[in-house]
Request: fold
Amino acid sequence: MPGGVVQQCDQSEPHLNNYFTKQSNFFAPLNAGCTIFVNNQPGGRFDAADMLHQVVKHSVTSMCCAPTVWRLLVQEDLAKHKSGLALRSICSAGEPLNPEIGRQLLAAWGLTIREGYGQTETTCVMGNPPGHAIVEGSFGVPMPGFTMTVDGHKNEQGDIEGELCISLQGRRPVGLMVGKNKWILDNYVPP
Reply:
């Protein structure tokens, strides 16, 4: 399978019919010319051993999973799958990943996991793209088209703590808050 993005799928979950879920998990990879591999596991329960078997069997080359999935995968014998892996790239998205998980994946497969962060209504807004050094505990850098700010204060150590925000000043990022949310932007966010 050329390309290949693995996506865990459970058809019993109604959120899979959500437009935004389809946008991030299906349309974005297809727009990039990727083949998508959907692993629909029987019974709707995640099986890490089966997932690893399917990734090897179908020669998946790029794999993005939520940190919860990576935490379950590293409980398996990752090294025994290395010789059959076609993976060239692995990433995590959704929430911060424990650095130890990344170290385990690097030791077992020789692959550096890259993290990305976005929301349902966006694509990836921050992350660790190829070519950028990875700093443990960091969200990475803003993705093209996004300007990020921190709404917060300095703590006792002089570091800024607060909420990470997408700046809406100037040019609004393409695709952000369109449709139903456009009314909010038109009525509450200054141009």
Q: What stands out?
A: Confidence is low (pLDDT under 50) at residues 1-20. DSSP finds five helices and nine strands in the chain.
